[in-house]
Amino acid sequence: MDKLVKNIACLDEIKASYIKSQKGWEKEILVCGGAGCVSSNCAEIREALTDSLEKHNLSDSVHVMVTGCMGTCAAGPVILVNPGEIFYTELTPGKIEEIVEKHLVNDQIIEAYTFYDTAKGKRIPRLSQISFFEDQVRIALRNCGQMEYSSIEAYIARDGYYAIAKALTSMSQSDVVETMKDSGLRGRGGAGFPLGVKWQAGLNAKSEQKYMVCNADEGDPGAFMDRSLLEGDPHGIIEGMMLGGYAIGANKGYVYVRAEYPIAIERLSKAIDQARKLGILGENIFESGFSFDLEIRIGAGAFVCGEETSLLSSIEGHRGEPRQKPPFPFESGLFEKPTIINNVETLANVAPIVLHGADWYRQFGTEKSAGTKVFALAGDIVNTGIIEVPMGIPLGDIIYKIGGGISGGKKFKAIQSGGPSGGCLTKAHLNTPVDYESLAALGAIMGSGGLVVMNEDTCMVDTARYFMDFIRDESCGKCLPCRVGTKRMLEILERITEGSGQVGDIERLEELAETLKQTAMCGLGQTAPNPVLSTIKYFRDEYETHIYDKHCVAGVCAELQTSPCRNACPANVYVPGYLSLVAAGRINEAYQLIRQENPFPAVCGRVCTHPCESHCRRSQVDEAVAICDIKRFIGDYALRDKYNIPLVESRPSTGKRVAIIGAGPSGLSCAYYLAHLGHEVNVYESEKVAGGVLYWGIPEFRLPKKELAKEVFAIEASGVNIHLGVRIGDTIKFEDLQKDNDAVYVAVGTQKSRLMEIPGEELDGVESGLAFLRRVGLDVDRSVPEKLVVVGGGSTAMDVARTALRLGSKKITVIYRRTENQMPASREEVEDAMAEGIEIMTLVSALKVLGKEGHVCAIECTRRELTDFGRDGRKKSEAISGSQFVIECDGVIAAINQDVDTEFSANAGKPVIDKFTAKTSNEGVFAGGDASPWGTNIVIGAIADGKRAASSIDKYLGGSGELNKGEEIEIPVIEDVEVTEAHDRFKTRRLKVEQCQDNFDEVELGFHKLDAMAESLRCLHCDRR
Amino acid sequence: MNITINGKSLNVEDGLTIMEVASRHNIKIPSLCHLKNVHQYGSCRICVVEVEGMKNLQASCIVKAREGMNIKTNSAKVRQSRKVLYELMLSDHSKDCLSCNRNQSCELQALGYTLGVGESRFSGERSSCSMDISPSITRDTSKCILCRRCVTACNDIQEVGAINAQNRGFETVISPSMELPLNSTACAMCGQCTVVCPTGALQETDGLTPVWKALADPTKRTVIQVAPAVRAALGEEFGMETGTLVTGKMASAFHELGFDDIFDTDFAADLTIIEEGTELLGRLDKALKGGEAVLPMITSCSPGWIKHIEHAFPGELDHLSSCKSPHTMMGAVVKSFYAEKVNQKPEDMFVVSVMPCTAKKYEIQRPEMGVDGHPDVDAVLTTRELARMIKQAGIDFDSLPEGNFDKPLGLSTGAADIFGVTGGVMEAALRTVYELVTGRELPFDGLHVTPIMGLDQVKTATLKIEGTLPEFSHLEGVEVKIAVTSGLAGSDILMKEIADGSSPYHFIEVMGCPSGCINGGGQPRSTCEDYKIKRAAALYREDEGKPLRKSHENPALQQLYKEFLGEANGHLAHHLLHTHYVERGLYNERVK
């Protein structure tokens, strides 16, 4: 039998003997035995390690220990080699053999197997230098990953059980309670109730029998903090329970663990046995007269049993259902005795606080939220795992620095904290300090510490549906609002995600949510609506798009889409359909199929930003299908001589007249579809040519005017009358136009572009990007400066620079205030520009335009650096003081309108337009395109707006709103090849750089027919179900 | 302490719920799951109120009023919440009110009227529902609103535990475990669940259909009998004040309904006293003479109790009196003695019992409750069903004249009337046994054995027998220890003593329902606070108003023994009036 631990000297003895035993080893290897690493088979790694060490005769000099979770769960299995704290990740038995041979035998660190730090962009061998660990402060997790979880001696050697020894030998019960109060430690289960106050209530309660209960019924989806603590440091929890027992006067404790945590149960049971054997648990502990023992109760995994009164019911053997509070558990809890219930993580903090004092603890965290918080990072984040950070750390640091950012190069969309009781935060909240008050103020909660990160491909309605489904499933069924309310809320969310959302559904959800919050019996029901409310709050437009447009922007809701590419296309063009037609050689029909949804196939084949491609599933195999290039080929082929494609037959005349202001892509699209429905359509264009921004805003070398003319011709041939050089307001009064027509569609586009709002803008030689393109495109003035500075990083900036180059500018510098990969222009455009000799300076912004005799002579700039996160989720850049420099130039073009921060796109000065019907507050007047509040500045978006307006106008005029898209085209079934063989996209032909320096010839020449057909065969046909 | 409700400052006593305080000050808070003195559960949340300073609305039925509370019971927020809650409830309810037995007596329906809510704006999947028709109780889960009153009645009041919430969340149903049918469980069929159910989810199993059919069948001679407790409660179904006795009107109604013979189970109660009293004396006699006699002897009138002991204490069945319950005794007499008198074959007699009880419906289906292959009783109607039958027949109950029961089996003594209330059987037995043994009247004021009166769960008394008649001289000086209990939880207390050999009693009365048959599972659902006291008082009034108050004085009974049965506990009496019991397992299977 083990010698009993009766006093601190006994602890010292064990500690000394353990440390001595460790000194005999030359090296130690800590193998992570957390649940994540167990899943990625760390047992195999351990065996390989033992075998390999034996093979190299190192068994006596290298000590292998299995520890609790180290935190980097996504990188498992992992080991830590000491001395040197070299951290090897994603191990296999093969790698182990190599590590033993090179590192342990020859002291060569194998950097290639060490942790890849995405925040730093390289492998970092030393654990403490890894971004993931750098900002962490480990108090609750002090022993996790640091020692053998299975050894009570190891725990004692790390000052374990010294806190309870200190309390029992030198502190009164009140002393312990006061220490807790002073420390500011708050309940880590989610509600954040001050621990000291709770324990005081427990101490004050008058009863012969009191209980301590540890709530280890962790059940939030994506949360595994408590599990890691129980598995990695079971003695830490036992000691916390003992301190609680002593403080309140309880001699019995229960740990309520869910049955889904078998490893935690096993490790905790063994630890309890060890503590009993040493007399640390039991009668007369440390000869103080204090007795305490622990029992584990295994819950059946009902989420509601994490609610304290339900948990007590369950321990008592009843159905896990809540009870009325008050009486609170500290008054009448388990078996109607005073009971204190604490969460695992809370208890894990207790011993260090008793040992080191309240002031020591207070140095971490914020004034109101002292200490640290353990989080489980999950979802679309690089470093999924367990972390512990000081309270108050900015949310963005957790995601980008510790978490390594969003996986797969995707954009961050939202973060869900607090599980099904919590809420979502968005990119606008990345600078929020993570503490109880700040999160609650935003409608989220700290919760127990589950952080689920979601990328741009997440549908927020579907996310709300997921959480509601979870809650509906976990509702105990006792009270009506939770039992039926969650079901009805789920049904509404389900129908929205299935495309059957109804007008008023959002309001119904809000009404039910309010009732649940107000009337549900326990916390589960009262907080159940939070995910729904917070997603409605921050993503209401997504709900509306689902309900009114039957469209899921993220492409998650299966019933609302045929394929990811089509779903991503604002105009809903049936991409897999035309790819099939191309593969079958039916190119003209492919053109017709595109034209059903978009009257500008050839134009879009050249200028579209092709969101379809960024959602192409082929990219998961090799590269996205070159959808846009194929469309370009279709246009080139179908219109190779002139517009030869049969027109859609218009319906008989309805006798209704519609006027359209603006012959840009939106106005012409609207006109095209309205004409096919039999309405008389007149388009009024202030310029002398049709096409709007397509004509003058996009340079010829990207979109030849003759190609545009072919598609404009087809629109006119469909019966649309285009009146050129007519400015509404001048030539015709708007009121008269309204009088003479049954409806008006306003699609005037963006006419002004912003300048930089810096001194010197008024100087000669400073102009906006759009103004420049306009004067060149409309052939008003084609003069260019010799030395040009272009400010901006979007398509317009590139177009301006490349146009100026072709018109004779000798030196062109583009300055952009963020980094290259943050530029809104497409990669190809930037690369083309650089290839053509344009200099691009990033992290530079303009301060002042300098002039000489009223004309620009230089621009003063400053260098910038990335700082914290902006409201759009991108890192903000900030000027570096003292880094000013001057670029000499004789022309400055500000092309910054496409780099507008989201804050600026609010309604200011723009008409009120219903996004889903294009209706304005003016009866019979509709509006859309770039002039609308959501104006996207992308051609396909303007086309989609025009099409939507056509449908809405038709309804307004008495029609069904269903567009006449011509005859249905039968889509051939292209046989699937059984195995998809990897093959990158086929290359298009393009001019060489030297061929395009001084002319406006189109740079991109498109596909050869055979390559186009072959490329279209790369489509995986996600549309087939 | 001082609180404010709806702007009014009130001084109230400590320890009351908000709802109780409001009610005492004539402020009505709508509620549904709450049932005063029975079920304080807070599950429907209809009674929520606004309490200043609290972040959520509070369920007034379970939240205690505290010093300084400022409460609003009718704010816009409260009304809106109640409306949505009610709509949610409706969205998962069958809403076939027109064809529901509880139409116009349904608390859910009444609540809708109170709240002024029309149609539910929330529709969706209905929770899975099922019909479970046991001999006594019919469960229609499509009408269940999960208030769990029945669970409280079964688990906390009766402590039988036959039903509980199964599954969770929207899938929650109230049912026996594994969703077994009730008849495959240890359910006592007491029907207490049907009394508390606010909707049509729990009701007695239909007995009216066969009765209407028999009445329309010219080959049947229809005989009706009615238990004592019915006459003290039936009037409530016709809007009469609680505690109104309607014996005469009820007899008239039976005539109007077209029954051939109108008899009174009271007669059989008197008969029971003779048989049971004789049995008790026999056992005491045997015990005193050193023979083997099983004591205490326990009454056997209550079929719910009988089924319960068969499940819960199968080893103690010998303690039960072998007497059948009174109405089955009556059935046996009707189908033998009376059938002979009126020259009918037993199979042509159709005996209907009107009972305050649902367990009797189960009882008449037991093979033990018949003679020579004929069931003693053919149909049992509850008090509630009788009221429905009278209404269906278009009888204006209020205006009926005071009628009489038919002879000979309609004649009874006051001792029989008090069979309907806890302690009554014991008192009736003592009135007869004491006089039989001593030749003197029971020495209590008004013949009432005061220690065993009242509605307490367990009541005990000791009666010293002195001055015996010569043939009972062996009983001289014996102190007879008696106990009375009602409700199955009470029975368990006494049975545990018997099982562990510590029971000091000679004779125990058990009634399966709390307070006895006046509160039986087939009785009207009362909203009157002290309905049990009032119904009990009515029965004592009926007893005291009768010229004959001791069973052995019943002349018709004396005649029955003389003409037909011969001796009490004799051979024919045993054949017709006594029975035996069986051990039952968890699933209501007969173990032996």
Structural features, described:
The complex is a heterodimer of chains A (1025) and B (592). Chain A is 37% helix and 17% strand. In chain A, helix 7 (162-170) packs parallel to helix 11 (234-248) and helix 8 (173-183) crosses helix 11 (234-248). The model of chain A is unreliable at 898-909 (pLDDT under 50). The longest helix of chain A is centred in the middle third of the chain and has 19 residues, at 530-548. In chain A, strands 9-10-8-7-11 form a five-stranded mixed sheet, with helices on both faces. With 1025 residues, chain A is of the alpha/beta class. In chain A, helix 35 (827-835) links the parallel strand 23 and strand 24. With 592 residues, chain B is of the alpha/beta class. Chain B is built from 19 helices and 20 strands. Chain B has helices at residues 18-24, 76-91, 107-115, 149-157, 192-196, 208-215, 228-231, 247-257, 265-288, 303-312, 326-341, 359-363, 383-392, 414-417, 424-438, 488-499, 531-544, 555-565, 571-577, and strands at 2-5, 8-11, 48-51, 58-59, 70-72, 131-133, 137-140, 164-166, 173-175, 202-204, 221-226, 261-264, 297-298, 349-355, 370-371, 374-375, 379-382, 458-464, 479-486, 507-511. In chain B, the strands form six sheets. In chain B, strands 2-1-5-3-4 form a five-stranded mixed sheet, with helices on one face. In chain B, a hairpin with a 6-residue loop joins strand 3 and strand 4 (58-59). In chain B, helix 9 (265-288) packs across helix 15. Classes of the chains: A alpha/beta (1025), B alpha/beta (592). Chain A binds chain B through residues 302, 304, 319, 321, 324, 326, 472-488, 491, 508, 511-512, 514-515, 517-521, 526, and chain B through 42-45, 48, 56-57, 59, 62-64, 77, 80-81, 84-85, 88-89, 91-92, 121-122, 124-125, 145-146, 148, 164-165, 167-172.
